[in-house]
Specification:
153 residues, mainly alpha
């Protein structure tokens, strides 16, 4: 069983990237502010796709009670997220600060689309902090317990 970020989350990230590209293409202060968001956002998204979000792809199977030995990779990913959580949250604060600059620039230039995108991305970060990251860590904790029971650790 290969760990994958849920398709809905992957699609949302792709949509956010596309909207960020549009904001950069707007030029002016909006484009400059969007480029700063992109610089902070890209490495953060790579970390999320590498280890923060793939454990969530196991939720449907876990909800059905299926726990398989090959799910153990999710434990390491979740523990890495737990260890890096402070850094991930710091990156969110940096991204949100850049997004606030983008909102100001977009509003001053009358770019409602870029302003709306920035607000949406701030809400996305909040959802990750309040729901997705804790859920991913819980998947790892749960699997660690269940897999330990199965192999008698």
């Amino acid at each position: 069983m290969m760990l994958k970020t849920p398709l809905s989350l992957k699609a949302e990230h792709e949509e956010l990237h596309a909207q960020l590209a549009e904001a950069m293409d707007a030029g002016g202060a909006t484009g400059e502010a969007a480029a700063k968001v992109a610089k902070a956002l890209h490495p953060h998204f790579l970390k999320e796709e590498e280890y923060a979000l793939p454990p969530l792809g196991l939720l449907p199977a876990l909800a059905e009670g299926r726990v398989l030995p090959e799910m153990e990779a999710a434990v390491a990913m979740a523990y890495r997220l737990k260890a890096d959580l402070g850094q991930m949250l710091l990156e969110h604060r940096e991204i949100v600060a850049a997004l606030k600059v983008l909102v100001e620039a977009a509003n001053s230039e009358g770019n409602e689309g870029a302003s709306h995108f920035a607000e949406k991305l701030m809400l996305h970060a909040q959802t990750e902090e309040e729901v997705l990251y804790p859920a991913s860590i819980l998947v790892g904790e749960y699997l660690n317990l269940r897999l330990s029971e199965k192999i008698g650790r």
